[in-house]
């Protein structure tokens, strides 16, 4: 007897598809439409084909911003992922200390992005900021407003302070999901702390780390508010990332056509790199 499938449950998903279409697909199609037109005003526009895409691909300023963006994102991942794992391993697992640790770690995540930039703008000043004054007290002529290297390091430190807690909380939840029997077996075998981490905890954190890497890469690759408030993209263009270049082009210069093409290329780069990350990690898991 053939069993008849009931597909009525799909009707429950239709509202989600409608919301996604309204909030994502329709704006995306609008951007695609803008990317092939030269727009002078709402009534005057001309079809230009792939001209804006060619301009984006040959723009040296955008190439520089893309290089800075990749360096920044990979620097962030190299710092925040190991640091987040270390913080999660040090957090208590039982009692009031566990609850207090979770609250304290999560505090930076509750602060709006523009406020984070303002906090570090004050924190890094040499006259009134604790960090700036401390650097100057150590004999370092620290000034993020005039020194490109200092500005770059300050933006990295700001992002590490703001987003490492996200990685730590993800890893903490993954560690708490490991059954106690694994640790009991490790104690029976007299496994070292490193062996427990290497053969029990790290493999069990793989799925969590995939989420953490993808989230942190996407977010760091789209960073805008924090460096804009802190340095305004300077000194020069040392902290001008892709998002700032896009906003300047779309809003500051009102070049909607080139900005739309730029945003589509931007989206495809993020999608491609995330796919590479995910595929590489999953293949590494299959090989084990």
UniProtKB/TrEMBL annotation:
Q: Which UniProt keywords apply?
A: Membrane, Transmembrane, Transmembrane helix, Transport
Membrane spanning stretches: 12-36, 70-89, 101-123, 151-175, 196-218, 259-278
| Cited InterPro entries | MetI-like (IPR000515), MetI-like_sf (IPR035906), Sugar_ABC_transporter (IPR052730)
Question: Where in or outside the cell is it found?
Answer: Cell membrane
Positions of the ABC transmembrane type-1 domain: 66-277
- Any one GO biological process: transmembrane transport
Q: Which CDD domains match?
A: TM_PBP2
**Topology within the bilayer:** Multi-pass membrane protein
- Which Gene3D superfamilies does this chain map to? MetI-like
Instruction: Please state the protein's primary subcellular location.
Output: membrane
Domain of life, per UniProt, equals Bacteria
Single GO cellular component annotation? plasma membrane
Which family is this sequence assigned to?
Belongs to the binding-protein-dependent transport system permease family.
Name it: ABC transporter permease
